Amino acid sequence: MIQVIHERIKNIPVLHIVKEKHRDDKLKTVIFYHGFQSQKELYLHYGYLLAEKGFRVILPDAHFHGERKGDVSEEEQAMFFWDTVENNIEELENIVDNLVARSLASKEAIGVGGVSMGAITSLGILAKYKWVKVAVSLMGSAYYGHFARGLVEQALEMGLEFPFDVNSRIASLNPYDLSEQIEKIGNRPLFLWHGKKDNVVPFAYSEKLYQVLTENKMVNNVEFIIDERAKHKVSIEGIEACVSFFYRYM
């Protein structure tokens, strides 16, 4: 039986998904991040399928989302998008250290993944943490600076006004911008899935990343799946391929 446990790790609300018979065992663990203006409960299918394969799975609520949304408006969620991504990245170590201290996980067997904003988070995590073993990006972008500038332009066209210096904020993303430090991927397994007709996070970002990795002969452990028809939604086949990738490489 698969258990879904609602708990708080370092004051972060999470869903903790695991086979009941292995609840107290040290297991390979996947931290899986939800998308923009979503919440952890809507990604339970990823957690269930991964738990069926024997993983411990943690689905956190991102800052300004789910149980942590509070009175934040949709406009404020958009305005502080990168704060949410950065917060996800910085909180990963707290989550993992807690699981390690409880003898539920090992830092040598941690995978990360996510959809859209969660995928962007996962790629930033690769730039920060050497110990993460496997990463999955479903409709993400490793090009933080370029994507951030595009989002700002869209926001300004919609009439949003930022309460901070936009250029300074974008520059502060550099430590997480994997596209500027591609060598940090090393030989770690990386799964990329993207719909070619994506109208939210452009397909070109995943295509460009794979091209750069190919040019640098870094694709031995990289899988790139292109869905020719998909927009900004992961297909069932994409979900299954994501789960299989974690199982294969962890």
UniProtKB/TrEMBL annotation:
Hydrolase among keywords: yes
Stored Pfam families: Peptidase_S9
Span of the signal peptide: none
Domain of life: Bacteria
UniProt keyword terms in alphabetical order: Hydrolase
A GO BP entry: proteolysis
SUPFAM superfamilies, per the entry: alpha/beta-Hydrolases
Peptidase S9 prolyl oligopeptidase catalytic domain residues: 49-237
Gene3D superfamilies: alpha/beta hydrolase
Entry's Gene Ontology molecular function annotations: carboxylic ester hydrolase activity; serine-type peptidase activity
Protein name: Peptidase S9 prolyl oligopeptidase catalytic domain-containing protein
